[in-house]
Amino acid sequence: MKHSVRSDVPLLDPRDLDFLLYEWLDVESMCARERFADHSRTTFDAVLDLAADLAADRFVPHNKAADTTEPYRADTGEVVTVPEVAKALEALGGAGFLAGEFDAGLDGMQLPYVVSKAAHCWFQAANVSTSNYALLTVANAHLLQAYGTPKQVEQWVRPMLTGEFLGTMCLSEPEAGSSLADITTRAVSQDDGTYRVTGTKMWITGGDHEMSRNIVHLVLAKTPGAPPGVKGISLFLVPKYVLDEHGEPGDRNDVALVGLNHKMGNHGTTNALLAFGDGSHLPGGTAGAVGHLVGRENQGLAQMFHMMNEARIGVGLAATALGYTGYLQSVDYARTRVQGRPLGAASGAQVPIIRHPDVRRMLLAQKSYVEGALALGLYCAKLVDDVATAGEPEERDRARLLLELLTPIAKSWPAQWAVEANSLAIQVHGGYGYARDHNVEQLYRDNRLNSIHEGTHAIHGLDLLGRKVRMADGAALRLLLDVMEDTASRAAAGPGALPGWAEALRRAAQRITTTTARLWGPGRPEVALANATAYLEAVGHCVLAWIWLEQALTAAGGEGDFYEGKRVAARYFFAYELPRTGAQFDLLDSLDRTTLDLSETWF
Amino acid sequence: MKHSVRSDVPLLDPRDLDFLLYEWLDVESMCARERFADHSRTTFDAVLDLAADLAADRFVPHNKAADTTEPYRADTGEVVTVPEVAKALEALGGAGFLAGEFDAGLDGMQLPYVVSKAAHCWFQAANVSTSNYALLTVANAHLLQAYGTPKQVEQWVRPMLTGEFLGTMCLSEPEAGSSLADITTRAVSQDDGTYRVTGTKMWITGGDHEMSRNIVHLVLAKTPGAPPGVKGISLFLVPKYVLDEHGEPGDRNDVALVGLNHKMGNHGTTNALLAFGDGSHLPGGTAGAVGHLVGRENQGLAQMFHMMNEARIGVGLAATALGYTGYLQSVDYARTRVQGRPLGAASGAQVPIIRHPDVRRMLLAQKSYVEGALALGLYCAKLVDDVATAGEPEERDRARLLLELLTPIAKSWPAQWAVEANSLAIQVHGGYGYARDHNVEQLYRDNRLNSIHEGTHAIHGLDLLGRKVRMADGAALRLLLDVMEDTASRAAAGPGALPGWAEALRRAAQRITTTTARLWGPGRPEVALANATAYLEAVGHCVLAWIWLEQALTAAGGEGDFYEGKRVAARYFFAYELPRTGAQFDLLDSLDRTTLDLSETWF
């Protein structure tokens, strides 16, 4: 595979993508599935190459400009963004990337999801702010395709897949962020079958701008008389412009921009407070935002979660991509920055800092985090494919279970460790890393969002320990442990360091088993869940150790720098990272009550 | 002690300062020393109260403004800063805080160093950017007082202690950051006893501005024929304005601002690239920056390190103060932000998020980091006092040894963990924490600098393991272990959880002993130092465990929320934090060669 990467800023390593997609995940074999019959490694490579080129040409050049010149609201009330953002999205839509995994009937490329997501990683690494618009639009389109009517798909999905319309998700409200049960946005059905939506939505990424002919908001709201809590949430499609009789954007809907949020990073992505139905506009002469029910009433949260799982993998990959480019940039810097001498050499020429052991440690740590996270993210993306297109029903069920279990980790682990990678990238750059002339400080700021949105870090801990490991009577966790044991047993017979790592992974798996059983012993859910975050982080590191053993196995026998790099990163992970989990499992096993047995007045 | 804190933004906990200064460190007893004979707890309290008031009145209000409106260079070439910075510094100087620990003969308050530093923590918590100017000026004045001539002290130190002149440290150059041996700035002696200095200095905090009548640069440079490397470095005082015959700032010296650096945080502090002797100005009609030798030739680095140790404690306290205010702000937020319900309650009113165990974990973690770091920083500041004023020579020597050993930890531990505290403060705030409407994202950005300047994180690892634990034939480390054992033995006889924590601390101390011995076994300095950072972090956590045991001992028997808070933070530290060191010591004991046995081409 020949890749042309024209950007001066290294974004991802195409050799690593080849390794993961073809040598490890054997994505090529998916072409045997009917849905992908028209594809081949050649078409996959062409897509990935095109993504790399587009990222370099259209996304990299304005990454700093969009950071420096934040979107603002002009006197006219319109949101002004640097013009390159719209142009990049137009190019993305024009090249078909918004429709990558969608049906040919929707003019999609009908790519495997895993290939499509790998392609998007290029855009995320190049400019996460601009790519956010694309990813939300794609996720939005997926949801409508799954639950919308054929007419809704035609009217809304089709223009989203070209980028003419862009999409948002409207979940949070000022008083209901993590607690969706408490949303107060209301939707009242009208005689014509539409609804009128009233309420305020917060943190809406891409919530307002002038970069598309329409904005398709997917809004969680409650209908009068709906059941309390999450069971009474419905999902509505609320466009910025109501469609006219020709299906074209017509009257301005009653959706008003209240204000833009100004964030530490992700400056290029508008983030809005939106008022629905405050009477700012009067579509059809009446106040209230015109909305269309998606699916059935009171099914909104379940439907949204369909989208959320994929969105969470997308967030994990965004974090990963930011970490990845920071890693590559710090490798470049470490190779060229000359400073200091080897131990014991008081004189003589200074050496590139990549010779210093601690710089190497910081590079290895980054490598192990970002290459590990990318592998995990692509593995999960392939599970999305398997759920939809694997040959046997059992295989699909198996993929679904594993995907459910891994999703909180695929989101939260990169969100935590790719930020750490970006911090190390700053550290490798020294004072330059803290300066805005270099790129790494922006990556760090941009990336810090990822453990907050799409479910905070803590929520993924509760999801994993409170729900996922217990679902289907523990079948998902047993499946993961089986998969890990399968890897370990293959590695145990392998050359070099593999057997030792296999043994370490088995011990880690054993700890997951015993700790999970202990936590879910009789009558202590409160204690079990009190340290759900420690559980998430410990299991996350074990999963990444498994991912690294998989990569090391795949690399076994491979010669040359690339494979040596995989082996040394695996060595790093087993020596420096996996052992961190011991203290976490010990804490969990102790059923520690520190956070429970305290009074709030002690702070 | 009655403290009035008028700021809406909580900065530090005055009750905690009382606890640390009076209940733990018994600072009041220092008044028995001749130097502090005019002082009492009353004067100390007055100083601390005044600092809290000044911080609230003069430092807090422009913290965000100085972040938003960065210093810039006007068309006239002058640096423009928001005017409140100069006013705050003027107030600081006027109130005597720049002269806090200085001699009465210099119109100083002759305070114990520890009290003076505690007072400065208020300014650092309120506005670290503005306080940077003050701290550098004080450190500069200390150095001149130690090594300058009486005339230099009179001419330069006196106006710095009022804030009329401000000071800088000029060490780094574009090609010589961490590697000071490689500086190329030259100083050539003149017939009149002055020198002319030529060279470029980088990352100069407070390097140029219009906020003082003069700027006093302390510049490292080499004289012709000086020995190579660090042994040929001399120290020069190079003012922005040469003094005229009346001792007043006169001709502009040949020091030119090349450019301002734009950083991720610390926006309010100018950071400059300066050209010395490039002919931009011609003092006395000739190019070359007029400099005055400080101390003797070739002693520059040793002299600078005199200043660096205190500067490093100052950086540690700056990091701590940023962490501390972030902690208090997130406690306030967690008490008032209502979101979600207790485990198992599907309905009913939502509760403040401080009820959720994971939020409490994040608050406890912050509390343990910032209160622990503050305790360590003040302990080290008191050691500075003891070195200078303890009654017996043995006590002074002991303090000097312990201070030397603890300095790399007092700098690097807060720089690492107070950033983590700020990250947790963001996380407690959720989406709001990532938004610039709240303060915590700025703290996180401001704080990230602290593991880079005044010696990077890695350099402190090398300093600790490569130098400090071996100095005086290991006497410093033995002393630390003795001090830890003394604490453990007192705690072993204490009530409640103290004996268990004492045992844990003893095990930690044992690991320090065995691991240090193993690393410095015969013939493996390369291996020993390869993981110096892991050593720094592991020993740092052990030292903080000791600090927490000291605090818990001091709190033993105390009743009420404050003392309960100390106990639960100690409990948190021993349950969640100290166990992290196990994996680090294991790694060190394994003499791991991962970072040594690799080729740079594998990245």
Quickly describe the structure.
Two copies of one chain form a homodimer. The first copy, chain A, has 603 residues and is α+β, with helices and mostly antiparallel strands.
Our Rg estimate of chain A from Cα atoms comes to: 24 Å
Strand content of chain A: 5-15%
CATH architecture of the domain at 456-593 in chain A: Up-down Bundle
Tally of helical runs of chain A: 19
Helix content of chain A: 40-55%
Beta strand count of chain A:
12
Mean pLDDT of chain A: 96
Structure description:
2 copies of one chain form a homodimer. In chain A, the strands form 3 sheets. In chain A, strands 3, 4, 5, 6, 7, 10, 11 and 12 form an 8-stranded mixed beta sheet that branches. The first copy, chain A, is α+β, with helices and mostly antiparallel strands. Chain A contains 19 helices and 12 strands. Chain A has helices at residues 14-24, 41-59, 63-68, 83-94, 113-126, 128-147, 150-162, 300-336, 357-389, 393-429, 431-434, 440-447, 457-468, 475-492, 498-519, 525-530, 532-555, 561-577, 580-589; strands at 72-73, 79-80, 165-170, 186-189, 195-205, 214-222, 233-239, 241-243, 249-252, 255-260, 271-276, 289-293. The interface between A and B is large, with 96 and 96 residues. Chains A, B: This is Acyl-CoA dehydrogenase. Chains A, B: Keywords: FAD, Flavoprotein, Oxidoreductase. Chains A, B: Its cofactor is FAD. Chains A, B: Belongs to the acyl-CoA dehydrogenase family.
